[in-house]
Amino acid sequence: MFPAIKQVSGDTFVFQQDSAQAHRARDTIQLLQRETPDVIGPDLWPPNSPDMNPVDYKIWGVIQQWVRESRINSVDELKQRLHDVWHGVQLNLRIFWFNNFPR
Question: Which long-range contacts (C-beta less than 8 Å, at least 24 apart) are formed by 35-38?
Answer without folding.
Answer: 35/2, 36/2, 37/11, 37/12, 37/13, 38/13, 38/14
